[in-house]
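Researcher: Let's run the pair from yesterday's discussion. Sequence first, then tokens, for each.
Model: Starting with the first of the pair.
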Amino acid sequence: MDKNAVSDLFRKFESLTIVVIGDVMIDSYLWGKVDRISPEAPVPVVSSSHKENRLGGAANVALNLKSLGAKAVMCSVIGSDGNSSLFRNLMKDENLADNLIVEDRERITTIKTRIISGSQQLLRVDEENVQYLSKDTEKLFAEKLMAYLSHNKVDAILFQDYDKGVITPALIEQITETANVKGIPTLVDPKRRNFDAYRHVSLFKPNFKEFLEGLKTDFDRHNMNQLHAASRAYLEQSQNRFLLLTLSDLGIFITDGQKHRLIPAHKRDITDVSGAGDTVISVAALCMASHCNPAETAAMANLAGGLVCEKIGVVPVERERLMQEALYIDVIW
């Protein structure tokens, strides 16, 4: 891929519509300074300076897609509570439509509060419930999704699964079958509970730890022979087309069960890995929808994932910086 092809690829992103299905949340950051220990317990006292709320979870995937120029259609279920209004306002602030966000009185809107001093995260507090959707809510949500897929142009469908219960096995099966009939690529960023429910998808992207847990096995990530064998067996069993594995400092591994490629990680000043997986799957979805080959898809996703690790907190990748690095860094091409 030469420089003209890279520029063309980023222009192509602007014409794409990606449907994101998954668990959304609010990422709340409490920033402050620590200068003493509490007299009540051996814990630091944080003198709060300011608080910031951001879109998180699957909504961060939507932000990554939007940042790269694509249209992101966010589909999820939240609570019918005070935080639901906050979430919708954050969507509005980012010019993201919320018409496929369903509210359920039986659920709460997930919020993760991170307490940060300087560049160090001291504590995280999660408010959530993780039960699967009720049958009534699942039916309503599926109907909304199917209606959208029936009447709109969709270039890829992305399941961003944070294991909070929005993505159910029945929903996975219904949407995947519909996508395959329509020829729409499907990509998955999984968690353990639904690991085995994803079948016949275009690209499956766990991290290495999630992959081992899903297979109920264990081996060192440096052992490429075992990695190849486990990947081949998994793809044969699941009938998924590609496996994309993030391997931390080793980089990204992609395979169709026969051919494989390991894209080394780029040297970075790592500040925070939060949200890197969101960025990787977002870029992979855009590349796949743009008909990039597997190595190109993995390389661009690898580059993007590394860039966001240089920032504190969950943030989307910056389009211009990613494009400039893709143009001038020897990614693989």
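Model: Moving on to the second of the pair.
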Amino acid sequence: MEENTTAIDIKLLNEKIEKESSIIELLQMEMGKRIVGQKKMVESLLIGMLGNGHILLEGVPGLAKTLAIKTLSDAVDGTFSRLQFTPDLLPSDLIGTQMYNMSTNSFSTKKGPIFANFVLADEINRAPAKVQSALLEAMQEKQVTLGDETFPLPKPFLVLATQNPVEQEGTYPLPEAQVDRFMLKTIISYPTIEDEQAIMRQNMTMAQDQLTPVVSIDKLLKAREVVREVYMDEKIERYILDLIFATRNPENYKMAKLKPLITFGASPRGSINLAVASKARAFIKRRGFVIPEDVRAVAHDVLRHRIGLTYEAEAENMTTDDIITQVLNTVEVP
């Protein structure tokens, strides 16, 4: 009898998600007018948005990282702000400040560009520690403190940070605590030759497609709630935990040779984000339940910035991606 009830629940849930996830198709179509190819980046943006997380994009300049988040904010009826991070940036340039008004003999609050639904933090690793810590509070607590007052940030609030892997001069490496706040770290690669031809043609014609908002903030927030309802079986939960624990104690999962390559494994925030991102991907695929393929598809993006490498790993040219691939190939799939 119990199995029958679960089956009916899953059927109802599937129908509900089929209905609610129609916004994904609208967003993908609208974004496709401006973004050619880069399906992985668009999917990562949607997973971050649905999972209430932030995204770190890494790629060489000119791969439409900035354009992608601007396009997403145009397709959603939300506010957008862009911050170009530089070494001389101050926390007040980001969060705002309190200004003294001589005529009224009082302070008034001037809010900074962080008060937007979509915030693009361009070249985040160029900003000094003070600015990064101000951004950290905003990302984690979804609020900003100015003087004695605390202001909540708008909902949804998504930080998309970019960093350029090529140029290291004048950059400040992000501390582990900050990197861990990003739900996903997505590596953007060059487009295919066919996609690049389409990009070239699109930019040769003067007409740029004007985007119209196809999804309201209310619909987006509703979709976020539904994502949390996506069914995750206990076997999938166990699989996620096995993947996380294998990055911490690989010797317990028949991968003793990885032990000297890892300084620290993924934190509990890794398991939470892996579960949420898997649910968001199932929602994007219009399914009411998570399958192992969802977990495997998001594992690299969720974990690549949560594993510390030893000097030995660097000497052997091992990357965190190589370690995640080995973990995925070794840990038993339910």
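Researcher: Give me one sentence on the second I can quote.
Model: Confidence is low (pLDDT under 50) at residues 1-5.
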